[in-house]
């Protein structure tokens, strides 16, 4: 656990100094959009694969102790979920808290706290899906095989690589299952509705004038096809999906344990 927190602190420092006090110009707009999406990515992959490294290996022990009458599946499952919650909350707080001020994001306590909360909700939703996948996967190999393509699809429909309004109809619905979509929109809306982004310079770091210029935070949000009032809606979606993932995981794990005698 200590190593995980140290890793997050080092990554936050690297990210913070790489984008130290990002200027409010067109290059800064591009950088900030990438930074906020990177928050989602960094809170996703280590969390998902960390859970999958340990949880599948405990299944034989769970089956034996359940059928010996030592404890019900619910007790194991609840203990596992509760043990993960502080781990995957604290490291999200570490990442966003350190990187936020070094990068120079909106310097208000309210917006900082909303960024931290968004990060925690993203990581919590990731953890819930990781637990659910492990609960119905018979092995680590199967869990990883399922997760890899799933994370790729979710990240591709998250809003950075592809404009969500331009997604084909047959795949557009996937964005509404993705914490990349919910988290990224929440990060973007929280940052770009800050009042300092009302007159963004059209120059780039090189001094040249950008061919395509976004003059305000509202234009940045619109260009991504996000909605400026969706912050709390995204939070609610992540909470509901987290509960749904944990419920599905419990049902799947209970069924598997009862079938193995």
UniProtKB/TrEMBL annotation:
Major subcellular site: membrane
InterPro entries per record: ABC2_TM (IPR013525), ABCG_transporters (IPR050352)
Record flagged with keyword Signal: yes
Assigned keywords, A-Z: Membrane, Signal, Transmembrane, Transmembrane helix, Transport
Origin: domain of life: Eukaryota
ABC-2 type transporter transmembrane domain: residues covered: 3-192
The name this protein goes by in its record: ABC2_membrane domain-containing protein
Source organism per UniProt: Haemonchus placei (Barber's pole worm)
